[in-house]
Amino acid sequence: MSNTGRKKKLASFNCDQRKWEQFIACCNSKGTTATATLLEFIDLYLGDSQDNAGAIGGNDLDERLDSQIKASVEKYLVTSNNSNASPTNETIIAICERLEKLESEFSNESNESNSNQATVIDNLANLEQKIEKMTARMTQLAEAIIKIQDYLNNQQKRGQKSYYNNSSYSGQSPRMQPLTEEGLAKRLGVSEETVRKERINLPPPLFVAWCKNKDRAGLGWEFNENTGFYQPAS
User: Fold this and answer.
1) Residue 183: what pLDDT?
2) pLDDT (tens digit per residue) in 19-60
3) Is 47 in contact with 58 (CB distance < 8 Å)?
């Protein structure tokens, strides 16, 4: 072919088919052609030494051009992909947008999870406060029961004292001796298993009150872990 009186020779070089097709597509997207772009690469490569190109051997020039064109094509593809909205870039942009969307959704779910966790912590704190109030109330009830039992026992003792005084009774009642679990069970009119169960399940003050309610003389009994016997509560 001829153009403005000068003959142009068609050059050939080795290049990956897929890479070459991408190069052609990139050139077309810029409004030019692969041939025009390659000629521009050649002019840039020769530069000021274009006048001396004839002094270089033909085979050596072809190899240098072949190598330079390959490198230029690869560089051009990378630069084009980074600066232009090619189909590959459009895919990358779409992936980035999808990742941003997923990140936003994950952030929202994380915030919601933190909010739910804060709600659970608040509920646990409220539950602990309620349990503390119930425990304090149970302690007050236990103390009240003991006071009532003490009052009833005092009333009973006063009646007995009045009886003994009227009967001209003198002397002190014998001190109650510690009892085994079997002895206490007989005194309270219950089984040994019942005594053991109540002692284990009830706090010491409530166990004393329970014994007072069962004892025929209204005495409270407490368990001495050192001796293993039940003794009158002081």
Assistant:
1) 93
2) 888 888 988 998 889 888 888 888 777 764 554 544 444 455
3) no
Where do we find the tokens 């109650």? 176
- How far is the C-alpha of 66 from the C-alpha of 24, rounded, in Å? 17
Residues 62 and 52: beta-carbon distance below 8 Å:
no
Helix (H) or strand (E) holding 181: helix 181-188
Identify the burial level of 24 via C-beta atoms within 10 angstroms of its C-beta, where 0-12 means exposed, 13-18 middle and 19 or more buried. Answer: middle
Report the half-sphere exposure of 111 (CA within 13 A, side-chain side): 5
176/211 Cα distance (integer angstroms): 14
Distance CA 217, CA 158 (A): 13
| pTM of the predicted model as reported, rounded to 2 decimal places | 0.29
Distance of alpha carbon 203 from alpha carbon 210, whole angstroms: 10
